[in-house]
Amino acid sequence: MENKNNAGHLCALLTIIIWGTTFISTKVLLVDFQPVEILFFRFVMGLLALLIIYPHRLTGTTRNQEFTFVAAGLCGICLYYLLENIALTYTMASNVGVIISVAPFFTAILSHLFLKEEGKLRANFFIGFVVAMTGIFLISFNGSKLELNPVGDLLSLLAAFVWACYSILTKKISGYGYHTILTTRRVFFYGILFMIPALFLFDFQLELERFTNPVYLLNIIFLGLGASALCFVSWNFAVKILGAVKTSIYIYMVPVITVVTSVLILHEEITVLSVVGTLLTLVGLFLSESKISLRKEVNHGLTK
């Protein structure tokens, strides 16, 4: 059981490390690609990759199960990314980064309401949440001022809530007993279907000749095979093992990975605020992951 949990934590960490570096590839592609074009190409590539890796059909699903797949595709593949990208056109990236990191809090609330097996929420989860969000705030607004934008910030908050819904749906799907690759592929399929209408709204251009540029090709391969095909399978596997709440806590790590990547790859200067923010975020993550409730710790201390 312990080995299985360790595998779940490792998958969650691997996923977050890759997702935390995708901003570099996305930034490179945004020179000649619309955000919706990047999303469509990466998830179509991810779907094809999963089909090649595991060429089996998902059969025997019930109507309710199929509806759950549809909802997961709508939330995790289509709405989340569209809301996040649209939010970036209205507000600062730092705002979006902080607000999206609220997703674990929403996941915990929804899990408490709809997934009874996830257990009760402990005080250390909420303390860890506050500590981590303080760290994320310091990282995101390092060297810049806070500028609120009601439309962009509300869209970011909605995106965080949608991802929490996806996490709950993923946990529900994991209970069906199907292979993780098959369920992930089915979710991708529905997500792409929902994405198609948005292509016409956001000036989608096929223009595959753009991928003759090796830089663009390598970056879309990284997003399609790594950040989509591999990461969604590993994330869904982690949710299956650890549960929706514990897995979502790793989202706190995204700004930390972004800082480290910026220093190592983009050679950006690391500041004192970034270091303090990173440490606080890590402390918050460990507090939220703590298996011992604070109430038990207090009682234990009183009996000494």
What are the SSEs and their pairings?
Elements: H1 2-19, H2 22-29, H3 35-53, H4 63-90, H5 93-100, H6 103-114, H7 123-140, H8 150-174, H9 180-201, H10 214-242, H11 244-248, H12 253-264, H13 272-289, H14 294-302
Describe the structure.
- With 304 residues, this protein is mainly alpha-helical.
- The protein has one domain.
- Helix content is 76%, strand content 0%.
- The radius of gyration is 19 Å and the shape is globular.
Describe this structure in a few short sentences:
By secondary structure, the protein is mainly α.
Largest sheet: none
Q: Are there runs of 5+ residues with pLDDT below 50, and where?
A: 292-304
Shape: globular
Helix content: over 70%
Number of domains: 1
Compressed to H and E, one letter per element, the order equals HHHHHHHHHHHHHH
Taking the alpha carbons of the first and last residues, their distance comes to: 32 Å
Radius of gyration: 19 Å
> Hey, roughly how much beta strand do the residues contain?
under 5%
Q: How many helix segments? A: 14
Number of strands: 0
| Overall pLDDT metric | 86
Class from secondary-structure proportions: mainly alpha
